[in-house]
Amino acid sequence: MKNSNLAQLKSELLPILKARAFFREKIRLSSGKESDFYIDARRVTLSPAGANLCARIILEMFKNEKMDAIGGPTLGADPIVGAVAALSYEMGKPVNAFIVRKAPKPYGKQQQIEGPLLQEGDHIVLFDDVVTTGKSIVQSIDVLSAMNLKAAKAVCIVDRKEGAREILAQKGCELIAIFTIDDILN
Q1: Which residue in 49, 50, 124, 179 is a FRET match for 21, CA 20 to 30 A apart?
Q2: pTM of the predicted model as reported, rounded to 2 decimal places
Q3: How many helices (H) and strands (E) does the chain have?
């Protein structure tokens, strides 16, 4: 395995994000806001190098903290929480992964959270690829809360710095960004 130094891993991921995921164009975001640029992180998180680097960065960031499970809103969380689970298992410190659906399935067990059973008291970290207002993570927090579960931390690849940090703080959840938009624009 390559050097697990956080700064080194981030320096490998940043140029990939800039080259493959950043676009300067007018676009409407999921928050409803209009922007002059777009970050399509799935172009990175669904690639072998991008998924691996993101997972290694997250595991490095949380290496001194208890993390029983990582999950978040589908589709932004799907590839990375799976990569974190796989890599954590290989490293001998397994972390469960889960996905939060926008709504419960209308069939089967009608679950809104998919993955291993989460339990009260689990140290849960939420993940989303790019955050603007934090709306998707807030929805995940609310789903967990209805099940008596709490996520005290959330991590994202890019924070667009448009209010998510503050909104999540009001929900008792700290946002940790691998990068901010300033890193992408510079």
Answers
A1: 124
A2: 0.94
A3: 7, 8
